[in-house]
Design brief:
Blueprint: E1 3-7, H1 12-25, E2 28-32, H2 42-48, E3 56-60, H3 63-70, E4 77-80, E5 86-87, E6 98-101, H4 110-115, E7 120-122, H5 135-146
Parallel strand pairs: 1-2, 1-6, 2-3, 4-6, 4-7, 5-7
Helix pairs in contact: 1-2, 1-5
Length: 153
């Protein structure tokens, strides 16, 4: 199963919307603490609508705890940053991929970027007037790209 991993998300509405995308695509949502909100936050639930109850949610106290418990293979990890060396259109995503996204304001911590420098991807943009996309929009685009071959319609 493909998983969406949010590392230290800050905005509950984004996380709620990502949860809804996870339900739509039958993906797991992995949250890496610390979070910038409480899971019980009304904004998170409002964005996830009545789908939040169906989110397959897993939480880890830290990135290191996630790595230790899940032990992902290097080819499972796809870290998304605005300066990623490769376009998210390029790779073949395995069915058990981890699509990893950082905080809305700061992205992924430098230590994570350094440890996985060869696994950085970006969503291409035509305009130079936009630095980055909203987290929930980026996740949705990447998630659909990762599963593009799994749909018959």
């Amino acid at each position: 199963m493909t998983s969406i991993v949010l590392v230290q998300p800050e905005i509950p509405g984004n996380t709620g919307a990502v949860g809804r995308t996870c339900v739509a695509l039958d993906m797991e949502l992995v949250l890496i603490h610390p979070l910038g909100f409480e899971i019980s936050d009304k904004k998170l639930k409002r964005s996830g609508l009545d789908y939040w109850q169906y989110v397959r949610l897993v939480e880890f106290r830290s990135w290191d705890a996630f790595i230790e418990e899940r032990a992902p293979r290097p080819d499972q990890l796809f870290l998304f940053e605005e300066f990623g060396a490769s376009s998210f259109y390029e790779p073949d995503y395995p069915d058990d991929a981890y699509l990893v996204f950082g905080r809305e304001t700061k992205g992924l911590p430098q230590a994570i970027l350094d440890a996985h420098a060869g696994r950085l991807f970006r969503l291409p943009m035509r305009s130079d007037k936009v630095r980055s996309l909203n987290l929930a929009n980026s996740v949705a685009a990447a998630a659909y790209q990762a599963v593009r071959g799994q749909f018959s319609d």
